[in-house]
């Protein structure tokens, strides 16, 4: 359940949604993506009402959900094929982005031949091709080990500076939220409400040791206080 929710996303921005389990984060994503139609309120994309209209805002779940019987390039090209792009053209368009996403050489491989980090890159590329400039990412790095997650964070910030994609992502990780986000919404209560909005005033790209600075710890302290309230 959600009540009196209002969130915004600016072009090229990374916004995180952080809160305890059961606060309604996934429900909010289902509303924004058009999978759920809310009892009240609207979802506006570039001035257009897209409430209850799936397919306009792409949605990447926690698991990569790559089809095991398709090659990586066919997995990535799937959104284009679904939209009516001929298969060979879809493969070519997807293939042009493999190097940028650090996937060069994996086109003809199958998902089981990729590492967890590479699978997440492929899933994010597929999400990017499915998007209309906006993507929702539901804990995209939660299944990765600590070292791989750190590397993926650095890669993600780098690729976001290269592609025209605005993102909202769900996380339970305060460090991840501060490291990646331009803004952080705190969602709590039952029904869920936005109880705080934290602007991370640290320009990107952020230094590798940003998470060791007093500034970083101050953001974490504010998040912890907001979650307790």
In whole angstroms, the N-to-C terminal distance is 19 Å
State the major sheet: 6 strands, mixed
Which strand order do you get reading across the main beta sheet? 4-5-6-1-7-8
Instruction: Give the low-confidence spans.
Output: none
Radius of gyration: 18 Å
H/E topology pattern: EHEEEHHHEHEHEEH
Give me the secondary-structure category.
alpha/beta
Give helix % range.
Answer: 25-40%
Indicate the mean pLDDT. 89
Strand content: 15-25%
The backbone outline, from C-alpha atoms, is globular
Question: How many DSSP H or I helices?
Answer: 7
Count of extended strands: 8
Short description:
With 229 residues, the chain is α/β, with parallel strands linked by helices.
Overview of this protein structure:
The model has no long low-confidence stretch (mean pLDDT about 90). Helix 2 (about 70-80) packs parallel to helix 4 and helix 6 (about 175-180) packs across helix 7. The protein has about 230 residues and is an alpha/beta fold. About 35% of the residues lie in helices and about 15% in strands.
Set down the secondary structure blueprint.
Elements lengths: L13 E5 L6 H8 L11 E2 L2 E2 L8 E3 L11 H11 L4 H9 L20 H15 L3 E5 L7 H15 L5 E6 L2 H7 L2 E6 L4 E7 L14 H15 L1
Parallel strand pairs: 1-6, 1-7, 4-5, 5-6
Antiparallel strand pairs: 2-3, 7-8
Helix pairs in contact: 2-3, 2-4, 6-7
């Amino acid at each position: 359940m959600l009540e009196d929710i209002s969130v915004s996303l600016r072009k090229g921005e990374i916004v995180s949604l952080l809160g305890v389990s059961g606060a309604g984060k996934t429900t909010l994503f289902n509303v924004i993506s058009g999978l759920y139609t809310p009892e009240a309120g609207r979802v506006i994309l570039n001035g257009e009402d897209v409430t209850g209209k799936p397919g306009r805002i792409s949605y990447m779940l926690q698991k990569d959900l790559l089809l095991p019987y398709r090659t990586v390039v066919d997995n990535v090209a799937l959104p284009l094929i679904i939209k009516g792009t001929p298969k060979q053209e879809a493969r070519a368009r997807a293939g042009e982005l493999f190097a940028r996403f650090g996937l060069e050489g994996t086109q003809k491989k199958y998902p089981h031949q990729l590492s967890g980090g590479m699978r997440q890159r492929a899933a994010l590329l597929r999400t990017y091709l499915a998007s209309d400039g906006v993507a929702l990412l539901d804990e995209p790095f939660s299944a990765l080990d600590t070292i791989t997650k750190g590397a993926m964070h650095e890669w993600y910030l780098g690729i976001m500076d290269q592609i025209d994609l605005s993102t909202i992502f769900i996380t339970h990780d305060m460090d991840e939220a501060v490291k990646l986000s331009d803004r952080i919404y705190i969602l709590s209560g039952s029904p869920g409400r936005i109880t705080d909005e934290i602007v991370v005033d640290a320009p990107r790209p952020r230094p590798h040791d940003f998470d060791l600075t007093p500034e970083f710890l101050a953001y974490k302290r504010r998040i912890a206080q907001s979650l307790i309230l």
